[in-house]
Amino acid sequence: MSDVLTQLNGAVFIAPDGPGTAWYYLGDCAYADDLSLPKSASTPIFCYSARTGKFVKRGSSMEAPDNGTITVSSLLERTANKLEQLRCSPTLYIAQTACGIKSDLKNADRVWPLVHADIESMSYSNLAHYSDDGASEVSVDFAFDPDVQMMVLLDITRLTTADTDSVNDVDAVSLAVCAGAGCGDPVSPGEIAWTASDSAAGPAVGTPQITENYGALWTDAVANPFAAGMSIMSSAIVDVSPTVRRIIVGMEAPAGAQGMIAYSDDEGAT
């Protein structure tokens, strides 16, 4: 199996009723052309410097991106397929599969979900000719939100830590955060995560653990959020400002009493 993906690894799936509904393999004779995902355009902001006599860049402004676009085509057959029967905005799944049957979406190595793709036009080609005998095709042009989150096949690996207590919950940063002036360090999805651990027998305290390298290394938080014997049942990560990431943990409710929550704005130091 090659690590390089080609067009023959590709497949097109369609969910006519939108995301979370039944999807269909569009067939061996369907294909998709280039997937265009425009990004925000940047316009520089310059000020003329009286001291240097030159324009100095002081910042930039952003413009909204255009729609994402793709054209999906298939052979024209006697019976109309799912592509030709579309009336409303479907969800498309453009997939590439290196190993396994590519007509099963669950085998895909990469999937681009194009949610609520608007139908912009439908065209038919090679319908008649006096001498050529090319295959007739139907093609549909789609437009959609360009902020497409590509899905990949997960590689599940058992990770070990020095903590021997049960872990009740794990929460991780789910969105990418870009760096910038006054915006903190860049963070990728899954790079930072926190656990919610049981309290050990003794009684001992429940100590959350943190990773800042995708789970390669887990370390105990400096501060313990609750008293001895109280297990941590849940954790959540919330960005409260460009430079502050709040960690919220929930305590197991004692018998006949309310549970508690605790939070840290300094990565568990306090």
Unreliable segments of 5+ consecutive residues = none
Order the strands across the largest sheet as they lie in space: 2-1-7-8-11
Query: Helical proportion?
Result: under 10%
Beta strand count? 18
Radius of gyration: 26 Å
Strand content: 35-45%
Largest sheet: 5 strands, antiparallel
So how many helices? 0
The mean pLDDT is 88
Q: Characterize the overall form.
A: extended
Order of helices and strands: EEEEEEEEEEEEEEEEEE
Distance between the amino and carboxyl termini? 50 Å
Structure class: mainly beta
Structure description:
- The chain is mostly beta strands and 270 residues long.
- Helices cover 0% and strands 38% of the residues.
- It contains no helices and 18 strands.
- The strands form five sheets. Strands 2-1-7-8-11 form a five-stranded antiparallel β-sheet, with no helix packed on it.
- Strand 14 (209-211) and strand 15 (219-220) form a beta hairpin.
- The protein starts with 9 loop residues before the first strand and ends in a 6-residue tail after the last strand.
- The mean pLDDT is 88.
Write the layout of secondary structure elements.
Blueprint: E1 10-15, E2 24-25, E3 30-32, E4 41-48, E5 55-63, E6 68-75, E7 91-96, E8 110-114, E9 118-125, E10 137-144, E11 151-152, E12 167-172, E13 193-197, E14 209-211, E15 219-220, E16 232-241, E17 244-251, E18 261-264
Antiparallel strand pairs: 1-2, 1-7, 3-6, 4-5, 6-10, 7-8, 8-11, 9-10, 12-13, 13-14, 14-15, 16-17, 17-18
What's this, in brief?
The protein has 270 residues and is an all-beta fold.
